[in-house]
Amino acid sequence: MSVAPHTTSAAPAAKSKSRVLPLALFTAVLLGIPLVVKDSFFIHSCIVVLFFAYMATSWNFVCGYVGQLSIGHSMFAGAGGYATVLLFTQTGLSPWLGLPVGGLVAALLSVLVGYPTFRLKGPYFALTTIAFAEMIRIWVENTDTFLGIPLNGAAGITVPLLGQNVAAMQFNDKVPYYYIIATMLGGALLATWLLENAKLGFYLKAIRGDVDAAESLGISPSRYQLIALAISAFMTGMGGGFYAQFYRYVNAERLIGVDLSIDMALMSIIGGQGTIFGPLLGALLLAPLAEITRSHLGGSLLGLHIVVYGVILILAVLYLPKGLIDPLRRLAAKFNGRGTGR
């Protein structure tokens, strides 16, 4: 009779251990890569992958938990990127402070955009987000100065080079940028985990499942969707600020263009939207493919990476509708069953 309680408590412990060990291993590998690999191009490629993983995780708040498809998320990246750079070039504000300020600017923009658009359903919401992003992109590309602030139109803004300067977030080596974006990704994954286990996460899942039923329980869909969008935009804006500091340049075509929005959406959807690690898996697969196609075939077959994304998306919808994370979950569940004797 005394064996049963011990067996019952052992099962959750084994299950918890099976979740912690892979995460700890991944964290150790992530932090150890720059210590082992010294090739600059490889570190640069890793930074790009982590950047897209971060952006896809930020986007996941909207589609994965709110249940709305945003194809205009790049406007928040642009708002954060331009705000960070302008604060640095015009006022001398350190990018370390400019990144969260840029995130707040993006969050404010999301409230202005989200308040009217969340009243729309289905494809109309997606089309409206594209329209907003394209209007902002076209306006920035055709505006040299706004209220005395130089935007430089399509030419964009170049961040002044100061050499090795920690306060200006400028380094002669790429390794510090690697750890910065790795920390940001860790924060985004933690925020997703907190969302899943918070009341807001349960409300959003209820709204995504059945809006009318959620309203009947006293849940305000527009209020909680707007909160999730603001959080997503804040993180996306910080990502845009990091992009500007890493490349030391910001322009509307890359940071506000629809390509970045599509990258974020597809990585999250293919990896597994509405999950913590799905967007990370999608970025680990798609970001290297995009880099390879751009670097080797970009001159002759411009936009090929979008075609590759499309093929992978079709295959994922047909064979892995819940994303790449689904078979990994089934494998982990099977492993847990064996480990606990079930």
Structure description:
It is a single chain. The chain has 342 residues and is an all-alpha fold. The protein has a domain at 37-257. Helices cover 75% and strands 2% of the residues. It has 14 helices and four strands. A hairpin with a 2-residue loop joins strand 1 and strand 2. Helix 3 (74-91) packs antiparallel against helix 4.
Q: Return the average pLDDT rounded to an integer.
A: 83
Helicity range of the residues? over 70%
- Give unreliable regions as ranges: 1-16
Q: What Rg is obtained from the alpha carbons, in whole angstroms?
A: 21 Å
The share of residues in extended strands comes to under 5%
Query: Which shape, going by the Cα principal axes?
Result: globular
How would a crystallographer describe the biggest sheet? 2 strands, antiparallel
Instruction: Output the structural class.
Output: mainly alpha
Span between termini: 19 Å
Number of helices: 14
* Strand segment count: 4
Largest sheet, spatial ordering of strands: 1-2
SSE string, helices as H and strands as E: HHHHHEEEHHHHEHHHHH
In short:
The protein is mostly helical and 342 residues long.
Which descriptors apply to this entry?
disordered N terminus; mainly alpha; two-stranded antiparallel sheet
Layout: helices, strands, pairs:
Blueprint: H1 3-36, H2 40-66, H3 74-91, H4 95-117, H5 123-141, E1 145-146, E2 149-150, E3 157-158, H6 175-196, H7 199-209, H8 211-216, H9 221-247, E4 249-250, H10 252-255, H11 258-272, H12 278-297, H13 304-319, H14 325-339
Antiparallel strand pairs: 1-2, 3-4
Helix pairs in contact: 2-6, 2-9, 2-11, 2-12, 3-4, 3-9, 4-9, 6-9, 7-9, 11-12, 12-13
